[in-house]
Design brief:
With about 375 residues, the protein is α/β, with parallel strands linked by helices. The protein contains 15 helices and 14 strands. The strands form 3 sheets. It has an 8-stranded mixed sheet, with helices on both faces. Strands 10-11-14-13 form a 4-stranded antiparallel sheet, with helices on one face. GO terms for molecular function: kynurenine-oxoglutarate transaminase activity; L-aspartate:2-oxoglutarate aminotransferase activity; pyridoxal phosphate binding.
C-alpha cells in the first residue's frame, strides 16, 4: 500500500511511521556519540549504557528489578528481536499460538523455524478474546504464545483479566510467552499498560520486546530491546549473534539518553497521539465509517460496510488510494492465509501524522465518498 500511495501521490495513512524526525535532543545525543565514538563493534549484548537504561526504565515504570547484565539484550529493532526470540525458542514440530489478526512478521518467522501456528481470533466489533477458544489452542506441542499489547493492527489494550487468563494458561501448559510491547507508552483514556512478565509466575517464562523506534518516533533507527529471565535471554542472544551480531553503538547511546527523560515526556507523547486519534476518528465517523474502540498504538480500525457494502477491504483500499488519494491497509492482510476468521470489511488507518495531514485526508475521503 505504501508503494501504491507513492505512485498515486496519496496521503499515506497505511504504513505505521510518524511524519516528523523524532526528539531533537535524542538525535543530538546520537550524533555526538557518532562523532566521539566508539564506532567499532560494540558488545554483542549491547552497550552497557543502554542495557542499564532499559533496566532502569523497566523498574521505573513497572517495578521489574532487572539485572542489566544478564536480563537485557539490545537488538536491531523489534523485528530482529522477534526473529531471534522465535528462532531460538522454536524447532520443527513445535506449535506457537497467535492471536488473530496479528502483525505480519509473526507467521513467516514461526514457519521458517519449522513450527506451526495455532490461531485464536479476536472478535469484532470490540475485538474480544474468548477464553474457551484460547484454551482450546493449547496442546502438548505448544511451545509459546505470542502476545501483542497494545495491539497492532487493532489498537486494543488487553485487559488485566485477559492477561491473567493468558498467564494462567501459560503456567498450566508450561508455555513461554513472547510479548511484543512496542507500543507500551501509547495508551489512551486512562488505560494502563501491564507487561505480562510482571504477573505472578511469569517472570521466568516471558520474553518482553520493546522498540526505541516506537517509543521515540525514530522508526528508522531500528533499535530494540529484549528482557526476561537470564536463561531465556542467554538462549536468544545466541540467535541474535548469528542474525546481526550487534546494533550501531551511536544509536544505542542516543536511545540510552532518551530512556532517561522524565515522565512528562512519555505522558505528553501519549496525550499528543490521543489528540491525533480523536481528529481522525471524528473525521472518519462524520464520513460514515464505523470505528472500533482505539485504546493505544498508532492505529484506528474502520468498518467500511456503511460506505462500501460488500466490497472487499483490499479493493476498497486500492480504490481510495488511487482515486481519493488516501492510503489505508486492509485488515485481512493481518490473518493467516487459510484463516477461518478472516474479515474482509475492516481497514486500518494510521494517525501518527500532523493534524493538518489528518484533516486533509478526511477532507479528501469525504469529498470522494460522498
Amino acid at each position: 500500500m505504501s508503494g501504491l500511495a507513492a505512485e498515486a501521490g496519496a496521503i499515506n495513512l497505511g504504513q505505521g511511521f510518524p511524519d516528523d524526525e523524532g526528539p531533537d535532543d535524542i538525535r543530538a545525543a546520537a550524533a555526538q556519540a557518532i562523532v566521539n565514538g566508539p564506532n567499532q563493534y560494540p558488545p554483542m549484548m549491547g552497550v552497557p549504557e543502554l542495557r542499564q537504561a532499559v533496566a532502569t526504565h523497566a523498574d521505573r515504570f513497572y517495578g521489574m528489578g532487572l539485572d542489566w547484565q544478564s536480563q537485557v539484550l539490545i537488538t536491531s529493532g523489534a523485528t530482529e528481536a522477534l526473529a531471534a526470540s522465535l528462532g531460538a525458542l522454536l524447532k520443527p514440530g513445535d506449535e506457537a499460538i497467535l492471536i488473530e489478526p496479528f502483525f505480519d512478521t509473526y507467521l513467516p518467522v514461526i514457519e521458517a523455524a519449522g513450527a506451526t501456528a495455532q490461531c485464536v481470533a479476536l472478535h469484532p466489533p470490540n475485538w474480544t478474546l474468548e477464553l474457551d477458544e484460547l484454551e482450546a489452542a493449547f496442546s502438548d506441542k505448544t511451545k509459546l504464545i505470542l502476545l501483542n499489547t497494545p495491539h497492532n493492527p487493532l489498537g486494543r489494550v488487553f485487559s488485566h483479566s485477559d492477561l491473567v487468563a493468558i498467564a494462567d494458561a501459560c503456567i498450566r501448559h508450561d508455555v513461554v510467552a513472547v510479548c511484543d510491547e512496542v507500543y507500551e507508552h501509547m495508551v489512551f483514556d486512562g488505560m494502563q499498560h501491564t507487561p505480562l512478565i510482571t504477573l505472578p509466575g511469569m517472570s521466568d517464562r516471558t520474553v518482553r520486546i520493546q522498540s526505541a523506534g516506537k517509543i521515540f518516533s525514530l522508526t528508522g533507527w531500528k533499535v530494540g530491546f529484549i528482557s526476561g529471565s537470564a536463561d531465556l535471554v542467554s538462549l536468544i542472544s545466541k540467535a541474535h549473534q548469528n542474525l546481526v551480531f550487534t546494533t550501531p553503538p551511536g544509536l544505542q547511546i542516543g536511545v540510552a539518553y532518551g530512556l532517561g527523560k522524565d515522565d512528562a515526556f512519555f505522558t505528553e507523547q501519549s496525550g499528543d497521539l490521543a489528540s491525533k486519534r480523536d481528529i481522525l476518528r471524528a473525521g472518519l465517523e462524520a464520513i460514515g465509517f464505523d470505528i472500533s474502540p482505539c485504546q493505544g498504538t498508532y492505529f484506528l480500525t474502520a468498518d467500511i460496510r456503511p460506505l462500501a457494502g460488500d466490497e472487499q477491504d483490499i479493493d476498497f483500499c486500492k480504490r481510495i488510494t488511487t482515486e481519493a488519494k488516501v492510503a489505508a491497509v486492509p485488515i485481512s492482510a493481518f490473518y493467516a492465509p487459510n484463516s477461518n476468521h478472516k474479515s474482509h470489511h475492516f481497514i486500518r488507518f494510521c494517525f501518527c501524522k500532523q493534524p493538518a495531514v489528518l484533516e486533509e485526508a478526511c477532507n479528501r475521503l469525504s469529498h470522494y465518498l460522498r
